[in-house]
Amino acid sequence: MKTLSSGARGPQVQLLQLALRRAGYGPGPLDGSFGVRTAAALRAFQTRHGLAPDGIAGPLTHAALRPWYTGHVNHTIRPGDTIYRLANLYAASARAIETANPALDPLRLPVGAELTIPFPFPVTPFCVDWCSTLLAFCCEGLKARYPFLGLGGIGSSVLGRPLWRLTLGEGGTRVLFNAAHHANEWITTPLLLRYIELLARAAAFGEPEAAARLRDRTLSVLPCVDPDGMDLVTGDLDGSEAWERARAIAAGYPAIPFPDGWKANLEGVDLNLQYPAGWETAREIKFAQGFVGPAPRDFVGPEVLSAPESRAVYDYTRQLDPALTVSLHTQGEVIFWRYQDHAPEGARELVLSMARASGYAVDDAPYASGYAGYKDWFLDAYDRPGFTVELGRGENPLPVSDARDIYPRLRGLLNAALDGAG
Ligand SMILES: [Zn+2]
After folding, report:
1. Which residues are 329's β-sheet partners?
2. Residue 393 alpha carbon to ligand 1 centre in Å
3. How many percent of the chain have pLDDT more than 90?
């Protein structure tokens, strides 16, 4: 976290406001603008936690706020502590505490040992703009609440941010869901993380549907393929040298709003035009449209898989060898399921069940965007079901408040995909 004080703006201010609200201090609306109410809430928090009440969120204050960034607190067991007492103390659920601490005998808590206590709110928020700092807190928070989740990275972005991976289940049929290949479609990141969060919770709490869903399956999730781009679009990079470089690239494309129209990585390469499936054709089409060099969108890159983000997703997919993939995008409320005129066996039944579960239409991608995408490559290389899903409507970036309406449709769709895999 950056050091934040009066006058600061951006997604990290929203995150600070969210943490203060979660901790019970009223910072006012989560508007990303550090004003008098945020300062007052912060000073109250600092006073209560033995910090100098200077109204500046620096390293010590951020460390004290960490439980409300990640969604859990570490508690050192004292004589007389029981799970039920601690559940009361932290307004947590006893079941959630047991899930987060599988090695501990709940009836004999060893004094001095550390317990992870999950707070009663979801780890994945739908009420603030996202940035890679929040993404890291959420990945850590999910792993702490659900230790059976696999958490790792598949590589790094241009700016060195981790490309996170979460894995759930141990079955032989592997399924891969990914989100935010496109920067200004970052709303797909909290949506996909919320999905794996609630599926992990349902599995931990013994819900039969979730258990059946995961019995023979392993779900891998790449929640954000373009973290740098997300940070650019939501304002987290404002004032930085990286922002200046992006601004210089965007200056060549004055018709594309900056940064709202930015889809690419920080080198101006469209990460979903990088895959080896008709890449030369995609290049011809996009060059003819004027995207001949680094751009906010639609530049295919100097070579296939030249961008570290697309290369990492490609390598990970080859290593995982999934039976099915779903890629989340935002525009059109539609599911794409073919590459050119070709569809793998079983894809038609699957796409129809995904459409039924979500209410999204089924369609073929228009010619000009029918090449070099992740789904195109997956279908072409593996001849297994791979889908691109456009989750919403409106101008990108969709407001994060749209996530509430999109989520139930997405959940149905992803459940149908998971159930139909293999
Ligand atoms: Zn997209």
Report:
1. 390
2. 12
3. 96
207 is known as an active-site residue: no
If you measure from the C-alpha of residue 113 to the centroid of ligand 1, how many angstroms do you get, rounded to a whole number?
Answer: 46
pLDDT digits (tens, 9 = 90+) for 87-121: 999 999 999 999 999 998 888 899 999 999 999 99
Say which of 140, 390, 395, 407 is annotated catalytic.
390
pLDDT in tens, 370-405: 899 999 999 999 999 999 999 999 999 999 999 999
185 tagged catalytic: no
Neighbours of ion ligand 1 (CB under 5 A): 182, 185, 329
Q: What pTM does this model have?
A: 0.97
CA of 189 to the centre of ligand 1 (A): 12
pLDDT digits (tens, 9 = 90+) for 285-339: 999 999 999 999 999 999 999 999 999 999 999 999 999 999 999 999 999 999 9
Q: What is the mean pLDDT of each run of 10 residues along the chain (422 residues)?
A: 97 98 94 98 98 98 98 96 94 95 90 96 98 98 98 98 97 97 98 98 95 95 98 97 98 97 98 98 97 98 98 98 98 94 92 98 84 97 97 95 97 97 90
196-231 b/e (C-beta count within 10 Å ≥ 16 → b): bbbbbbbbbeeeeebeebbeebbbbbbbbbbbbbbb
Q: How far is the CA of 400 from the centre of ligand 1 (A)?
A: 16
CA of 226 to the centre of ligand 1 (A): 11
- Sheet with 162-168: strands ordered across: 150-156, 162-168, 217-222, 173-179, 324-331, 386-392, 334-336, 361-363
Go through the domains of the chain in sequence order and give each one's CATH number: 1-70 (1.10.101.10), 72-118 (3.10.350.10), 125-422 (3.40.630.10)
Residue type, 4: L
Select which of 90, 253, 316, 371 is catalytic. 371
* CA Rg value for the chain: 22
143 CA from centroid of ligand 1 (Å): 28
